[in-house]
What does this fold into?
Amino acid sequence: MRIRLETDEFLMPSLIGTIRSKKYHIYGFVKFIVDTGSNYTDIGERDALRLNIPFNRIKKLEESTRLGGTKWNDYELKDVSLVVKDENGNRVELTFDSIGVRKCSKSKNVEMERAMEMPSIIGNDFLHKNKLALYHDPFRKVSYLERI
Amino acid sequence: MVEAEFASFSDDAKWFYENFEAIQKKYSGKFVAVLKENENRLIEAESSFEMLLKKLKKKGIDPAKTFIEFVHKKGARIILY
It folds into this structure.
């Protein structure tokens, strides 16, 4: 089973899917960068606001992440699924134990706007859990995930 | 309906990347939303993400189902870590 990825303006592979949580009334579409340099999967603040994720109802983690030169507060969203389409158009539900949600720890407007530029990320934890291998050819702009 | 909305979002993302150079020339440094009107695509842009969200909500557009991206300046170098 293969899941075709888009190649973005920086030639990074990106996965588009539907994020859903009945518990928190979340439903919407997200573009994730597949980043094998990351051990962690999370939803960026821009997408969190688009999806109306309730930061006040989900658990704030003690650890923080560094990404793109910025320090972030991390939250944990449980009871969530990601649904994508495989190359034949079939619906595939991928699972998380939980997914991180990132929120800028700074309060200055400039830093907060910069935080909004950062994408949501699929990391190695997600690929490992869902037994997915990444093929990425930036020259031909051909990228896909393949279930092992 | 849900299938159609997802297909529309995916098509908008694809269109965005295919037309990125032209979009970058016009909207560099801005947050943009790809919208459709009578089968034509158009862009709503703002320097602030919050302003863009407000604009979309005012028009009755659901941001959760709308492709929104930041248009980096030409030559921007992105290292995620």
Notes: The first strand of chain B starts at residue 31 and ends at 37. The first helix of chain B runs from residue 2 to 18. Strands of chain B lie at 31-37, 40-46, 68-70.
